Amino acid sequence: MSRKKKKNKRIRFGLPTEVKQMILGVVMILTAIIISLSFFNKAGKAGSYFLTGARVLVGETAFLIPFILILGGLVFLNSKKNSEDFLERRRKIFWQVSLACFILLLGLTGILGGFNPEIKRGGWLGYFLSWPLLKYFGFWAAQIIFLGLIIIGSLIFWYFLHEPKEKKDKEKEVEAEKEETKFASAPTYGAAEEKPSIIKRIFAPKFKIKEVPPFSKEPKIREESVMAELKTESKPAKPGSKVFSYQPPPINLLETEKEVPTSGDTRVNSAIIKKTLQNFNIEVTMSEINIGPTVTQYTFKPAEGVKLSKITGLSNDLALALASHPIRIEAPIPGRSLVGIEVPNKGRAQVRLRNLIENDNFQKSSANLLFVLGRDVSGLPVYTDLTKMPHLLVAGATGTGKTIFLNSLILSLLYQPTTSVRSAGPEMLRFILVDPKRVEFPVYRSLPHLLCPVIYNANQTLGALRWLTLEMERRFDILVKGKSRDIGSFNEKALKSNLPAGRQNIEPLPYIIVIIDELADLMAAKGREIEAAIVRLAQMSRAVGIHLIVATQRPSVEVITGLIKANITSRVTFQVASQVDSRTVLDTAGAEKLLGRGDMLYISAYTPKPKRIQASYISEKEIKKVITYITDKNASELEKEMDFDLVQELEKNSENSPVIQVSDYEGDDPLLEEAKKLVIEANKASASYLQRRLRLGYARAARLIDILEEKGIVGPAEGSKPREVYGEREAVQAVDTQAIPISPKEESEGPEKPEETNQWEKV
After folding, report:
1. Can you give the residue range of the structural domain that contains 428?
2. What is the pLDDT of residue 482?
3. Is the pTM of this model over 0.70?
C-alpha cells in the first residue's frame, strides 16, 4: 500500500519533462553565478569551501566551471525549441549534456596538468590524466588528445545550441505555424485520466495541420466537380446584342459571416484516434486536419494490409474515445488514398449566403443556373449548375433545413449577374412554386419571376404539371424549327443581333424552375397522377429548360418511388430519422449521423459518393429585403405578366370546383349502359363483378362503379357490406315493355302463372 501511495503522489505532483528541463537549466546558470561570486569571496563560507575543494580536484580549471555550467543551462533552456525528434530524445538530453560537461572538463584539466605535472595546475584530476599520457605518448601527443576532448565537448554543446536557430532560419513559416498549435502544458481529458501527458509524450503524431482561416478571408476557392466544365470568366456582351435591363439586388441586403468554428484541441484528438486504432491492432499514419464550419476532418493513411471494413466498424469506439457523437467515417476520401473521420466541432460557425455569392467563382462563372450549395468539411465554397443536374431531390426530417436550403437556392438564382447569355430577370428565369404547407413561399407572391401565383393544393399542382407537359412539347417544336439541340444553343441564336432584313426577331426561351416544397402531401392526395407527371417531365424536360426541385420530409418508398429516383439522380439529404430513410434517398447509410441545422449530404452524376456540405443560412428578414428591392427597383419588369393559360388551368383545378362531374362521364364509356344492365339484373354492384362479366381491368371497372354511383343507380360503399342497387322496378318495367308485349286479352284475364310475375322479386 505504501508503494502505491508513493506512486500516486509522484503522478499527482509530477511535471512535464519540458518544465523540468527548463528548471534544470535555470539551476545550472544560478550555480555558475554563485561559483563566480566565490572567486571574489562574495559567496560566503559555502563559496570558499567549494573554491578550496575545486582547486584541489581540478586546479585552475575551477575558474572555467561557471562557463561550462552556463553552456549546459543554455542547452536545457533551448531544448524546448528543438527539432521534431525532440519528443523521442528529450529523456536522453540530461545525460548528453552531462557527458559534454564532463568531456570538456577532462580536456581542460588535462591540458593544464600536462604543462607541469609537479605543480598540479590541473589539480589531482589533471595529474592522474596527464601523467600516463606524458609517459607513453609525450607532451605534444598528450596535448593533442586533450585538445580533441575539448573539441568533442564543444561540438556537443554547439549541436544543441545551434540546431533550433538553423531550423528557424530554414523553416521560419513552419515554425510560426507550429508555435500557434503547439501542445498545451497540461491538457484535460476528463476526470477519469490520471496522467494525460503520457499520450502526448509517447503517441504524439507528427503531421501538418491544414487550418482554414476565417471564412471572410478566403485566399482560395474550390468548386464542386460539376464546375470543372464551367468557364471562369463571363462572356462580354457583343455590340448590338440584347442586354437585359434587369438589375440584381445589391449584396449589402444580406448579412456576412461573423462566427469562427471551434474545433478544440486537434492534436490531442488526433493522438486519441491513433491510440484507439492501435488498441485494435490497426496501424495508421496521421495526416492533415481540415477544420470546417460544422465538423473537423482528421485524415490518416492505414498501413498496408489493413481492411477498410475494420476501420468503419469502429465508429462507436472512436466516438467513445473522443467523447463526441455522432462521428462519420469516410473511407476512402474520393481522389485520395486517405481515410477521414469527421468529428463535430465544439462551436459551429453559421455559413451565410453573402460570402458565397461575393466570390469571384460565382460572379465570373458563365453557368446559366449556378446556385450555392454551401461549404464542405474544409470550409471551402461549393457551387453547382442546375442545368447540369438537371433535377434535384431534397429530403430530410422536419426542422433540419430543407426550406432554408430552397430559399437559399432561389436567392442564388436571383443574384446571378446579367450578361449577354446569363440573366436572373423574368425574361430568362421563371418560377412555379408549390407550397402545400401554405406558410413557406407566400413571401414570394410579389416576385415578378412567378409564372403563376403560389400553388397550395394537389389539384392545382396536377394542373400545373399538365400545363408544363404541354409547354415542354411546344418548346420541342420550337427547337426543331430553330434547328437547335437544346435551350442553350437556341437562346444564343436568339440573342444574336444584326438579323437579316425581313427576318422575324426570335425571342429567347426562359428557364422554368418548378419547386415543390412537400411532395408527400401531394402523393397522398394524387399519387399516381403526380408521379406520372413528375416522371415525364424529369425524363424529357432538360433540353427545353424546365427543371424540377422536389423536397419531402418523409423519404419513404411510397413518396420517393423507384421511377422518381431513376430520373432524378442529383439528391440532397439532410438529417433523417433512420438508416432506412438514408438508403431510400442515397442508396447508402450516413444521413442518419448528420447534425441537423443545414448539415447535409449531396450526390450527383458527377459525385456518386456522398459529399458532406454545410448549407448556407438565409433569414426571413433578408428574403423580404431582397424581394422588396426587386419589386420596387425593377418596375419595368413587372410588366412580365403571368401565363394566362396556366392561370386558367389552375382556376379550373381549384378546390372550389368539383373534381368529378357526372356530365363529364356521359357517353365517355361505351360500356356504361351494359354495366348498368348487368348490375340491375344481378342486384349487386362491385368492381370485381364487372371485371368478370365484362372482362375489364380493375381501374375501368372501378370507374364504371363510380359513374353508376354518381347517377344514382347504386349506393355508396359501406365497408365490407355490398352496395345497394336502386331503380330495379324501373328496370323491370323497361325490360317487360321492350321484350314481352302484352295483348288486351291476356291483360283482362290476368296472368296464368303468378309465380313468373314475381320472379324479379325472388331474384
Report:
1. 367-639
2. 86
3. no
Name the pairing type of β-strands 392-395 and 570-573: parallel
Nearest Cα to Cα of residue 281 among 254, 303, 256: 303
Looking at residue 271, which CATH number applies to its domain? 3.30.980.40
Q: Which residues contact 126 (CB under 8 A, 6 or more apart)?
A: 58, 59, 61, 109, 110, 112, 113, 114, 120
307 and 270 share a domain?
yes
Same domain for 598 and 671, yes or no, is no
Q: What is the pLDDT of residue 318?
A: 94
- DSSP for 38-73, written as a single string: HTTT-SHHHHHHHHHHHHHHHGGGGGGHHHHHHHHH
Query: What letter would DSSP give residue 372?
Result: E
pLDDT value at position 14? Answer: 57
Helix, coil or strand: residue 339: strand
The 10 Å CB-count burial string (b at 16+, else e) for 729-751 is: eebbeeeeeeeeeeeeeeeeeee
Residues in the chain predicted with pLDDT less than 70, given as ranges, are 1-17, 79-92, 116-120, 162-245, 419-422, 497-505, 634-645, 648-649, 652-668, 719-720, 727-763
| Amino acid (1-letter code) at residue 506 | I
Asked if residue 224 is part of any domain, the answer here is: no
Residue 465 lies in a domain: yes
Cα–Cα distance, 559 to 577 (Å, whole number)? 16
User: Is 290 in the same domain as 426?
Assistant: no
Tell me the DSSP string of 408-444: HHHHHHHTPPP-SS---STTTEEEEEE-TTSSSSGGG
Instruction: Please report the pLDDT score of residue 89 as a whole number.
Output: 52
Report the b/e string of 119-139 with b at 16+ CB within 10 A.
ebbbbebbbebbeebbeeeee
Task: Return d(Cα 165, Cα 668) in angstroms, integer.
Answer: 96
In a domain, 172, yes or no: yes
In total, the chain counts a number of residues equal to 763
Q: How far apart are CA 41 and CA 29, in angstroms?
A: 19
> In angstroms, rounded to a whole number, what is the distance separating the alpha carbons of residues 275 and 270?
9
Helix, strand or coil, per DSSP, at residue 95: helix
36 by DSSP, 3-state: which?
helix
Q: Pick from 612, 610, 582, 230: which is nearest to 386 by CA? A: 230
Q: What does DSSP assign to residue 721? A: B
The CATH number assigned to the domain holding 400 equals 3.40.50.300
Cα angle, residue 418 at apex, residues 414 and 424 outer, rounded to 5°: 25
Q: What is the three-class DSSP state of 617? A: strand
According to the model, what pLDDT value does residue 293 have?
Answer: 93
* Domain co-membership, 711 together with 629: no
What are the φ and ψ backbone dihedral angles of 382, each rounded to 5 degrees? -130, 125
* CB-based contact 254:616 (threshold 8 Å): no
In sequence order, what are the beta bridge partners of 679?
A: none
Alpha helices in 578-727 (DSSP H): 579-586, 620-633, 644-652, 662-665, 672-682, 687-694, 698-710
Is residue 501 assigned to a domain? yes
Both 320 and 373 in a single domain?
Answer: no
H-run or E-run covering 274: helix 266-279
pLDDT tens-digit map of 245-267: 677 789 999 999 888 888 888 99
Query: Which cell numbers in the block locate residue 691?
Result: 371485371
DSSP one-letter string for 429-492: EEEEEE-TTSSSSGGGTT-TTBSSSPB-SHHHHHHHHHHHHHHHHHHHHHHHHTT-SSHHHHHH
